[in-house]
Specification:
This protein is an alpha+beta fold and 193 residues long. It has a single domain, classed as Peptide deformylase (Peptide Deformylase), CATH 3.90.45. It has 3 helices and 7 strands; from the N terminus they run H-E-E-E-E-E-E-E-H-H. The strands form 2 sheets. The chain has a 5-stranded antiparallel beta sheet with strand order 1-2-3-6-7, with helices on both faces. It has a two-stranded antiparallel ribbon with strand order 4-5. 34% of the residues are buried. The chain binds nickel (II) ion (NI). The site of nickel (II) ion (NI) has 5 residues, from helix 2.
Length: 193
């Protein structure tokens, strides 16, 4: 594919990150081209996952390239993903290419099973634990307009919102609207490291 050029990232405060993304009707060449560009963007930015809204496209597509000591490498595009099973709970550190400079401990399911279409439009099912399970949940949240900050307790969140105002990249994006602090499922999260 000719068009695997890195795309500009959208940052926290950009409304596209808050939209619920549209399902993909069929996996066309246009979708495959987007996937190629998203891999290029993810590698340029040195991330392990990237969702389409982060490059300004409000469609249900994300890419990951994840490997850790518990997980064999998974490099994969996901179209119209859904979590069909989840179990356990685990807290671990997350960051986001759309919120650079901010990291926090986030509670997630320890194990998930995800069903999706691949870049050829073929359905597949993936069972995940560890970093892979965390990445899948983070990216699927993006498709629903949810960011990891929404899953923090109100005090941690307020601290990180203040830090973001100091460290955010220069963009034209407005300040993020404040949301109710009861959005996430973690009320007693430890302060971020
Ligand atoms: Ni992210």
């Amino acid at each position: 594919m000719a068009s695997n050029q890195a795309l500009p990232l959208r940052f926290y405060g950009d409304p596209v990150l808050r939209r619920k993304a549209d399902a993909v009707g069929s996996v066309t060449d246009d979708v495959r081209s987007l996937i190629e560009s998203m891999f290029a963007t993810m590698y340029t930015e040195e991330g392990v996952g990237l969702a389409a809204p982060q490059v300004g496209r409000s469609v249900r597509v994300f890419v990951i390239d994840v490997e850790d000591e518990e997980t064999p490498r998974v490099k994969q595009a996901f179209v119209n993903p859904t979590i069909v099973e989840r179990s356990g709970e685990v807290v671990g550190e997350e960051g986001c290419l759309s919120i650079p400079g901010i990291r926090a401990d986030v509670k997630r399911s320890a194990r998930v099973v995800v069903e999706a279409l691949d870049a050829d439009g073929a359905p597949f099912r993936l069972e995940a634990e560890g970093l892979l399970a965390r990445a899948l949940q983070h990216e699927i949240d993006h498709l629903d307009g949810v960011l990891f900050l929404d899953r923090l307790g109100p005090i941690t969140r307020r601290l990180l919102e203040a830090k973001w105002k100091r460290v955010r990249p220069e963009t034209d994006a407005p300040d993020p609207p404040s949301r109710s602090p009861d959005r996430g499922d973690t009320s007693g999260a430890a302060p971020s490291r």
